[in-house]
Amino acid sequence: MGRTYIVEETVGQYLSSINLQGKPFVSGLLIGQCSSQKDYVILATRTPPKEEQNDKVKQPRAKLDNLDEEWATEHASQVSRMLPGGLVVLGIFIITTLELADDFQNALRRLIFSMEKSMSRKRLWDVTEDEVSERVTLHICSSTKKISCRTYDVQDPKSSARPADWKYQSRVSASWLSLDCTVHVNIHIPLSATSVSYTLEKNTKSGLTRWAKQIENGVYLINGQVKGNDCDLLEGQKKSRGNTQATAHSFDVRVLTQLLLNSDHRSTATVQICSGSVNLRGNVKCRAYIHSNRPKVKDAVQAVKRDILNTVADRCEILFEDLLLNEIPEKKSMTINKL
Question: How many domains does the chain have?
Answer without folding.
Answer: 2
